[in-house]
Amino acid sequence: MMALAPAALALPKIKVLATGGTIAGAQATQADAGYKSGTFSVNDLIKAVPQMTNIAVLTGEQVANIGSQTMNHEVWLKLAARVNDVLKSDDVDGVVITHGTDTMEETGYFLSLVVKSDKPVVLVGSMRPATAISADGPINLYNAVALAGSPEAKGRGPLVILNDTIHYARETQKVHTTRMDTFASPNRGVAGMINTGKPFFYSANTVRHTTKSEFSIDGLTVANLPRVEVVYSYANLGGELIDALVAQGVKGIVLAGVGDGNSTDAAIAALEKAAKKGVAVVRCSRTGSGVVDRNIEVNDDKLGFIAGMELNAQKARILLMLALTKTADVKKLQQYFYEY
Questions:
Q1: Sequence-separated contacts (24+) of 237-240 with Cβ below 8 Å
Q2: Known catalytic residue: 196?
Q3: Do 200 and 235 lie in a common domain?
Q4: What is the pTM of this model?
Q5: Which domain holds residue 173?
Q6: Is residue 223 part of a domain?
């Protein structure tokens, strides 16, 4: 067997875990605005960017092959388990996860709470399918591999990269339906940029994550994850939907409230009743940025609510689900929202 050259031996070993999404999608024709997610396999994606073999030793694995609009708890648990398993190996220096953009921020935040390694975990997708004119998937994937192999990415928690921009999974959110710069990190700003495969970080991830997180997937199943639902506030919202969720036995409700996490009198009254019945109630904002702090506009102390702080509703739902596996105490739950 021919010995590897020293340069090859020095290349980082990156595992690509594929879940589908637009980056693996195909159009019926070039004129077709629609496409089918998950058309191409992980090996197809790797072969499509041969330049990546110059910067990393790559292996691939197909964890799922779906559009991320159908992402679910079963895939989350399976993906988190695989990430933890492969990162235990000395033969893996980092992980790249190909993923649809619709729920990428949610998957990334879930992983930030349950991954137990400080090795780089990078989520990447695209806004154009692989068959589109000027598809963005290949350059995004190249940058993701470069980022996952960078020592500077270690210890930062899961990262999201598209459009040459690096985001912390906790901070980022999808803010446009079709544009290439669809991801933004409106509260704390982007983590950094990448240029010709070289990352430049602007800030540290200062919240608890990965190796410092007290949450894990040990013993978790789809069946025993606490049910938490999101209620979106709007003018004239009544309390009937909230009452119905409580009757169905939900363990938590996240309010995507107007402004500073507020809602109609009827909705707040229904949420107060829910809290008194032991349902954890978290207030967030539908505005897309800002902090929802305690006792601002709404008397959380009196009503028994939890302030969602910087998290949007979809991420607050994830934290509340995992937090409820630890405790139902409102004060402790609030502390989690301060720390994570």
A1: 237/263, 237/264, 237/266, 237/267, 238/264, 238/266, 238/267, 238/270, 239/266, 239/267, 239/269, 239/270, 239/271, 239/273, 240/270
A2: no
A3: no
A4: 0.94
A5: 12-212
A6: no
Q: Are strands 252-257 and 165-168 parallel, antiparallel or unpaired?
A: unpaired
- Non-local (6+) Cβ contacts of 218 within 8 A are none
pLDDT along the chain (340 residues), means of 10: 51 97 69 62 93 97 96 98 98 98 98 98 96 94 98 98 98 97 97 96 97 98 98 98 98 98 98 98 98 98 98 98 98 98
Catalytic, out of 19, 22, 131, 182: 22
- Tokens 């539908």, residue? 286
Where residue 52 sits, what CATH number does that domain have?
3.40.50.1170
Q: Are 306 and 334 in contact (CB under 8 A)?
A: yes
Please count the structural domains in the chain: 2
**Same domain as 186, residue 143:** yes
The values of phi and psi at residue 18, to 5°, are -100, 140
CA angle 315–121–123, rounded 5-degree value = 60
Retrieve residue 37's tokens.
Answer: 């997610």
Q: Are 49 and 128 contacting, i.e. CB atoms less than 8 angstroms apart?
A: no
| Size (the chain), residues | 340
Q: Which of 98, 89, 112 is nearest to 63 (CA)?
A: 98
